[in-house]
Request: fold
Amino acid sequence: MDEIVTLNHGSGGRKTHELISKVFAKKFRLPEPLTDSAVLKFTGNKLAFTTDSYVVDPLFFPGGNIGKLAICGTVNDLAVSGARPMYISASFIIEEGFPLKELIAIADSMSGEAVKAGVRIVTGDTKVVGKGKCDRLFITTSGTGILDPEREHISTGSNIRQGDKLIVNGPLGNHSIAVLGARNNLSFSTPVTSDCASLNHLIAGVLEKCSEVHFMRDLTRGGLAAVLNELAGMTGWGIAVDEVSVPVSDPVRGACEMFGFDPLYLANEGKILMVVSSGSDAEVLDIMRADPLGKDSAIIGEIIPDKKNLVVLDTSAGGKRILDMPSGVQLPRIC
Amino acid sequence: MKYIDEYRDKNLIMRLADQIKKSARLDYTFMEVCGGHTAAIHRFGIPSLLPGNIRLISGPGCPVCVTGTDFIDKAVAYSENDDVIITTFGDLMRVPGSVASLEKRRADGADIRIVFSGLDALGIANLNPDKKIIFPGIGFETTAPGTAVTIKTADKGNINNFYLLSAHKTMPPAMEAIVKERVNINGFICPGHVAAVTGSAIFSFIPDKYNIGCVVTGFEPTDILQSILMLVKQVNLDSPEVEIQYKRAVTAEGNVIAQSQLKEVFEPCDANWRGFGMIPSSGLVLRKAYERFNAERAMPVSSMPHEENKLCICGEILRGSKTPEECPLFKKLCSPENPIGACMVSNEGSCNSWYKYRIA
Amino acid sequence: MCLSIPVRIISIEGNMADVSAGGSIFKAGLQMIGNANVGDYILLHAGFAIQKISEEEAEETLKILREIDNALNDIA
Reply:
């Protein structure tokens, strides 16, 4: 096979077929013959459907790459809605000259992650653009899965009550700091690796045993602060967060102190927020901690009756302040 | 993390807060003059731990905030040349100039890169010998010595494509200008990292001449609270003096090596401060021996006269005479997303901190 | 901009050091520090060490803080 991707690979002719069959169809185990649409079977009457684009820079970073991100991100978006992720589509926009070896490694990651998550990549697309017209590689994945109507409220938080507890499944900020460390243009290095992971099994484990999950969302761009502010805005509730309870690893803290970042605003790729009734919090914590992707789960706050629409932080110093919606760009091209 | 966590001990914090409440029998207004303190005070929620008779106000301690618009205009003008790379601290990117910010210029295709150190900028100069690398230097005595070392390193290495656009300033002249304005201040929370370099003795003129106390303060919650307690005691006993709270990093003489680097490369000049106009001998300019690194000498650039938004009261906020909430633009037209004045752009600006952290 | 935190020197080469902030590693110019040793804590600001942290003074400060007693009221 050729060493680099050329415009010819995007022309729709022989080279395109070669690229698709030898890389994507092979890695994703697409059934032959390849058709324009995948035909999917469903039972039930509600589908969850999501899409996301991935433009992370650099493409490879400690703990993952753009391909792994593209699968985990879309799987997680479905899982936090309470749906069972089932089918994924994957589109690639490739810059002319992109090394084929890297494309194969990325496709491999995607395939491996799909198997781990128990989802199937069933369709996709490939385009090649001229040099300088896109930065190396962009990926878009869409995903769909069945949603049990009883779980529909989880996306909107309409069942949230005063006193409900907030839980996260582990330390925050790892993905952002790992990607920053991989950028190589700063005199900074870190042992932190991205937390990029498919969380659907962890979530299913909780939803199967507990019916008191009132809200879930994954903590990507904008971090915990963005999600909490969105939740407060959407539901009108006040939210109290205890800064000391939020898990953050030391190397992430050190990097944040130096760069002036707040870990509560950093993007994650393997972290979720769950809001559960106060009676179920201990049970949910136990279930999550039994899973490797939730072993450092912690209760970090609760829903409060006052300070409506606001997120209030009990700081590590014991003082109180607002945890505002993030503004400006903390770190560009993080996912 | 050592030297950080111990100073965030909630028990110690609560006891300090309690002791402050017990000791504060008068009314007190304390001013800090360091962006790092502005940010720390609000990030840790310090005002919520203090009794109502202690007021904390911010002065001109944010280097980005006190730098005039003409500085950004000059950097923007330089960025319009194809053979120029602007290497800047991240804080300057979003500061609005008369026409554009550096962030907008980058979006328009100008080569503008964020660096964390003057040495990083020198590295870029070495890798791009056919380009002119311009380093906008802002910051007080904490940052200026690093720039001095950078210039000396460029000099020793015979680097001839590296230039400094300096807006470095020194603290004491601005503090004196504040005191002369007769803003009601009972004490200064003095900048701990400036003093780590300069030594605490530079503040002696404030109690000596103006009977206002000074406590050189660290940046952790116990540091800030301990300093407030020390200032409260000074006011109660009417014994203004310079005290060092931040003893683990600050001495009376400071870092003499850093001071000598600074003196070797820079000399005082008059400088414009947003909110104050010209303050004599408050800026730093490259000495003759290093003047070839001065961007404005090597490539003169004119900046157009600039009209600040008439409703923006950044100047008064920087002088400590008004608070962000008293600005007609605050939260209505001016926000971190759409900043009108420098005080809102910088993470260390008063308006930015108030907007982000204040309990409604 | 005033951002400066105590970091530990983990290695020195010439007048540059690798310093650790909780395990994340940064570079620090030591041109302004007279006698820096691996294991020392310095204040890192804009890529330079601007001062050494004094272990004794740090301990002394903590000692004073711990002695602040609610019962004591030595202020007039």
Notes: Residues 79 and 110 of chain B are 6 Å apart (CA to CA). Chain B touches chain C through 59 residues (CB under 8 Å).
